[in-house]
Amino acid sequence: MNSDEEEERQPERLPISRRPEWADVTPIPQNDGPNPLVPIAYKEDFRETMDYFRAVYRADERSPRALELTKEAILLNPGNYTVWHFRRQILEVLNADLHDELAFVGRIAKSNSKNYQIWHHRRWVAEKLGTDASNKELEFTKKILALDAKNYHAWSHRQWVLTALGGWEDELDYCKKLLEEDIFNNSAWNQRHFVISRSPLHGGLRVMRDSEVSYTVEAILTNPENESPWRYLRGLYLDDTESWINDPRISSVCLKVLSTKSNYVFALSTLLDLICHGFQPSDEFREAIYALHASESEPLDSDLGKAICHVLKYIDPMRANYWLWRKSKLPLRAVSSQ
Amino acid sequence: MEPALRETVTQREQSMVLNDVNMLYHIYATVPPKTQRLMLELQRDNHVEYLLRGLQHLGPSFCSLDAKICCKPFFWHITLCRPWICYWILHSIALLGESVDATLEDKTIDFLSCCQDPDGGYGGGPGQMPHLATTYAAVNALISLGGDRSLTSINRDKMYMFLKRMKDPSGAFRMHDAGEIDVRACYTAVSVARILNILDDELVHNIGNYILSCQTYEGGISGEPGSEAHGGYTFCGLAAMILINEADRLDLPALIDWVVFRQGVEGGFQGRTNKLVDGCYSFWQGGIFALLQRFHSIIGERPTLVDAGGADCSIDSIQTTAESDLSEDEESSDGTSSQDDEACHFQHGGSQEASCSVNDKSAEMGPLYHSIALQRYILICSQDPGGGLKDKPRKPKDYYHTCYCLSGLSVCQHSWLKDEDSSPLPRAVLGPYSNVLEPIHPVFNIVLDRYQEAHEFFTRS
Ligand SMILES: [Zn+2]
């Protein structure tokens, strides 16, 4: 357990049974049946808190003291979705200050940033607060992402905030900054794709494509072994395969990487996809691919698609069967698409 | 953009893991053959002991339970642990070909019955709200246990009502009352409904649209629209689409291209692009190939959709090729079959536009991923010889990883087979042949004969 939480837990905790405000409530012990399986040895304070929680939950008591009790229960076990759910019902009835609630969730989230419940709760609170919460939520996820730049829940929450509450203005810069820190951060690439295709400020994928291709090509040439920009590059043409095939920048980045003769798996794989979709490679491509294979005794197939699969099978043995399979898919396509 | 002079966080973490893994492979390569054989051996007895110990008694304190089991974000829930632990342990024991004694069996059924909500579904413990993830875990645990007492303990009528309550107007499912909507919820709902034989058009309606909206530009599937492609969600999304007979709406060539690249130099799979290898993705990612090979003609030889006049009994045809199930035909023949004529061309901007030819050579070629390399990663890097399996070297073992590493291992061993009735070829199995685990039904991740028992039981009743 994290030290933050230990602090919250107040070492001199007074048992609920000795608190006057709870004197009228009879705690309900957990019923695991006659033969409890997978028994869990609970700590006493946890057991007691849950026994009282069951009592207020069963009585559907939506009161300030019940709200306080859910807080205690959550601090002891932030993964209990039943407690969170009941807390939301109480918050609603009491018309509680939701900014306080955000602060409370924020404290817990720092040590439990991979807990579905916390993020779901946070989304609920932020939704109630509306567009005012946008900035706060973007800052909050930024803090979590500073600790773990690939935290799946934080990214999902951030995307929800942008979509539901707005705040797109700085998002592309934020992606840029994260990618400057770590160009291999695929979550940041994914977010970039999210921004350029969904932000109302940028005009959509087609409008952004030109500048994005330049950015991505540069990233590829700096680290051709980095899969993220290669997939991103393809993602820029999701709705428009024709332009993807015909944009000379796509085939030429493949050619450039091939000519370096190192880290060219993604270049070959992209070229193969292009050819499968009808791209007509010039002799330059043929020469570059044959040059990769120069030292091998076995001659390459004159069908460039097959030749690429052959080279890939050789240099990428982990996926040898995949390249064989791709090769087996080629002839049919050649007949149908040309 | 400046050339990357310094290592980024991704590069640094990757090279640390690679060091550990290479060290182990180096040790393997340099020890005498006898030790090598030992390193590749699945330590069955120790795993069984570890698992049984877990079922009988679990850790000294609540907090240690929290730390030990809930280290993964996927399917993660502290209070959900108990039905999950039941499933992880019972499924692992079934994979190892063992069973639990009558007392433990009764205890499990009694305990899970206490978690069953009077209004249907299962919660994480007695008195907790029903939740789809725990419902899936409880149902799979009871089926992995098998036997009439276990199967009759599930209240199917109430379950149907629960699933209907979890169905959002958009078509997707919520994890619990007013809970989060995501691809896991869709998969667990459909999986439970299908195996209990209560899946109908109302439950199926528009799930496909939601899952389709989660396929990302990378090719894999994310938890929610816009999020990053992820192994766990890709498995759930594809399995759900297969269950509702709409897998062809996905861009399968792009999905396959994404998933083959998730297998790294370590031999194991990563969950997302440029993330670290992790043993549990042996199943989430490796299982994707089993799904496609068995239930889709794009890889395997089963032309399940080519000649489909509406219904597809492929989910059941895994048991024996000839068996046809009329009740399945009836339930899915309307509403979900409109995709059939799309089966042979992928209309969703596929990156390779593969045609669905039936003349594949996958049976001779082996699976599209490197099955032996994956088995090597599981046995050498994920196995604790003293019992239990784990994410990667230096990580502690836990029941979650034990379950999904073993499930992945089973998928590998049986991956060359055209049907599940035959035994794996010796060349498909890394290590001694005694490593062979029971085959699973990859859609539900339940050992095959337990699946068959449940399928017959719920078709009958
Ligand atoms: Zn894992």
UniProtKB/TrEMBL annotation, chain A:
<protein>
    <submittedName>
        <fullName>Farnesyltransferase/geranylgeranyltransferase type-1 subunit alpha</fullName>
    </submittedName>
</protein>
Automatic annotation (TrEMBL), chain B:
<protein>
    <submittedName>
        <fullName>Protein farnesyltransferase subunit beta</fullName>
    </submittedName>
</protein>
